[in-house]
Amino acid sequence: MDFNVKKLASGAGLFFTRAVQFTEEKLGQAEKTELDAHFENLMSRADCTKNWTEKIYRQTEVLLQPNPSARIEEFLYEKLDRKAPSRITNGELLGQYMQDAAKEFGSPYGSTLIKVGECERRLGAAEREFLQTSAISFLTPLRNFLEGDWKTISKERRLLENLRLDLDACKTRLKKAKLAEAKAACEGEMAPDFQETRPRNYVLSASASALWSEEVEKAEHELRVAQTEFDRQAEVTRLLLEGISSTHVNHLRCLHEFVEAQAAFYKQCHLHMQELQKELGRLPNAFSLNSTHSMAAAGSSAEGVSSPVETDTLKIEEVQAPATGTRKAKVLYDYDAADSSELSLLADEVQTSMQCGIQSLISRAQPPQGGRL
What we know:
Layout: H1 2-26, H2 37-64, H3 68-79, H4 90-105, H5 108-190, H6 199-242, H7 244-282, H8 286-303, H9 308-311, E1 327-330, E2 350-353, H10 355-364
Antiparallel strand pairs: 1-2
Helix pairs in contact: 1-5, 2-5, 4-5, 5-6, 5-7
């Protein structure tokens, strides 16, 4: 118990000394041991590496897993040293829903859903493989640096700072001891004038001078010890900081692996989508036919050539009236009668009329400017 109390008291005294030294440095009342420029550059480079590595790591996590709840769950499983359950990807889930819906429909839409669902599930499987590869080859090295190497560097830097405060405190103590010794020596030189009248003062002055000499020797010894410990710790910290270059090389290799994994993932997705397009193109359905006609019309318009759809369109001047009998005519455009002798018409309306009536309708129901039948 006595040993623990002494250790606690010693630790408290050391903490108080460091606190006083730190406060005096901030107030400009004490000198501070400055590190060399190379050492400062190493520390600045290490801080920069840590900050940007942390940002890259966090953002890569967001890229690979946008759901914050899922990231928190994975973090808790990792801290509890338990394996996280396998999670289905969004693409796989979408593909499963499409295939389940296709079983209910049983139509061309359902058969198309089956094809698209299979493709989505393949895309989801490719995404799962990409996530696993990226986590192992890129995220894990970054996390190991932040949770391993950087914690070691931070610990050694804190220890170096504490030893630097101890060293500066010893320098301050030695400086004060030397000033007190010099003052006592001055008082000792003046003591012979009072030797006959005040012999006791001379004895006290000589005793004080001896005590301060011992204090100076003690302070010098403590300074040598503190300087040795500081130099040793500075060398250890320097070696760790210089290891940041090796960290950059390792992270560069991991970055190349991450890029390769991304390229393989997107290439695989592109191949899957191309296969899906080919399969959909082979399916006979109204949508593909309409898409083909639309693409043909767009391409012909771009080249200034009329499309087959335009060529086959019925034109007003090409309509020939029958010789006799009645004829049904479908109204293509709305027409408002100008007087009582004319007939108002609505688009898509079917009219049954004699020959003369049809000729009258054809001549009057002209399309708007730029329109065609």
